[in-house]
Specification:
By secondary structure, the protein is α/β, with parallel strands linked by helices. It has two domains: about 160 residues, 3-Layer(aba) Sandwich (Cytidine Deaminase, domain 2); about 130 residues, Cytidine Deaminase, domain 2, CATH 3.40.140.20. The protein is about 35% helix and about 20% strand. The chain contains 15 helices and 15 strands. Helix 6 links the parallel strand 7 and strand 8. Helix 1 packs antiparallel against helix 7. The protein is globular, with a radius of gyration of 21 Å. About 45% of the residues are buried.
């Protein structure tokens, strides 16, 4: 197939719409079910590149949950602890494959943002992953293949309209890419930078203790940033992104947004949240919203009985700012990546509040010395790799 007609472009008024190969060759994808749209395919192609690179860099199967051309989460298939299984709502699914663990992590990083996601998998979609996806609100999936039973499960989603795409894993695009804006064609070489351990050698801080797990997490942050709308910052822990700040004009706002999401991920594991008793029959999306609101600063102070009873079987105690801060202060070992240099130390100060111990960034700011000094104050390890990863 050399082209595919789409229902419309970014918005319903943007017609006609299609994807095609400018050289007249065949598209590298086959649609096995459903009818993916313009934005679905942007998410699919970006997501596929991300997971393919994560697998190459770490050796683990990888997954990402994309929304509006940026990842809401990205992860490799490390086993899940009982705590993570519970907060990701997969503790009832039995034994999970490494690929299913990767998707649970990718979806669980920011479940509110992942609502209605487009999924990309590095490996053939297996039955455990399909069963997990079966009950999530999702628009579609791209993978290099599907087990027959997994394809049957996914094809039944959304009343048979779930988009299932198979991509040719051997497809290699042309080295020059084009983009048209306002009738003007832009041309550039593809961003083919190979993200591997060699980019983590230039440690500039007093602390130089960079473990293998930390290296994996820093590589995950960089590969995630490579496919996140810039400016962007990514927090990673134990093989998964836990907070992604995308598309902000100010770098410290990226760090704050990503840090807030990382804090929510950390707070979901606190005893006060883990002990919440939900109302009978409440769905996963409503539980996500209830938890997010509960973690908020004033939620339990102001809601009435008619509201909390909708979500909770027992009214929870207020989660005070002091209690939350005490829990977050226990965090450590978090990695942070930035797609461009830090112009000020403010992003490092914010990162320290979310347990960041490792940082990777290009460097090159006139204030690099102040940023390095900030890392030294917190005992962080920082790598300056001279690689910018803007994505637009």
């Amino acid at each position: 197939m050399t082209e595919m007609e789409l229902k419309y472009g970014c918005n319903p008024n943007q017609k006609p719409s299609r994807i095609y190969m400018a050289d007249g060759g065949d598209l590298p994808i086959t649609v096995l079910n459903g009818r993916p749209g313009y934005i679905n395919l942007l998410d699919a192609f970006n997501g596929w590149q991300l997971v393919k690179e994560l697998k190459a860099a770490t050796g683990y199967p990888a997954a990402t949950s994309f929304k509006h051309v940026s990842p809401a989460g990205a992860a490799i298939g490390k086993p899940l602890s009982d705590t993570l299984k519970k907060i990701y709502f997969v503790d009832d699914l039995g034994e999970l494959s490494p690929l299913a663990c990767a998707y649970a992590r990718a979806r669980g990083a920011d479940r509110m943002s992942s609502f209605g996601d487009f999924v990309a998998l590095s490996d053939v979609c297996d039955v455990p992953t399909a069963l997990m996806l079966k009950r999530e609100v999702s628009d579609g999936i791209i993978a290099p293949g599907y087990e027959p039973e997994a394809l049957e499960i996914l094809s039944a989603k959304k009343k048979g309209n779930y988009a299932v795409i198979q991509i040719d894993p051997g497809y290699t695009p042309a080295p020059i890419e084009h983009k048209e804006v306002f009738g003007v064609t832009f041309e550039q070489g593809r961003n083919e930078i190979d993200i591997n351990d060699s980019l983590l050698e230039n440690i500039v801080t007093k602390n130089r203790d960079l473990s293998e797990d930390a290296k994996h997490d820093l590589l995950i942050s960089l590969i995630t940033l490579k496919y996140t709308q810039s400016n962007s910052v990514c927090y990673v822990n134990d093989g998964q992104a836990i907070g992604i700040g995308a598309g902000q004009q100010s770098r410290v706002h990226c760090a704050r947004l990503a840090g807030q999401k990382a804090d929510n991920w950390l707070l979901r594991q606190s005893p006060k949240v883990m002990q919440l008793q939900f109302a009978e029959g409440i769905g996963r999306a409503d539980r996500d919203n209830a938890i997010d609101n509960y973690i908020g600063d004033t939620y339990m102070d102001v809601i009435g009985d008619d509201v909390w009873q909708k979500y909770f079987a027992v009214r929870p105690d207020v989660y005070t700012a002091e209690e939350k801060r005490a829990w977050l202060d226990k965090a450590s070992g978090v990695s942070l990546g930035s797609d461009a240099f830090f112009p000020f130390r403010d992003s490092i100060d914010r990162a320290a509040k979310s347990g960041v111990s490792y940082v990777v960034q290009p460097g090159g700011s006139v204030r690099d010395d102040l940023v390095i000094e900030a890392c030294d104050e917190y005992g962080m390890v920082m790598v300056c790799n001279n690689v910018r990863l803007f994505h637009h």
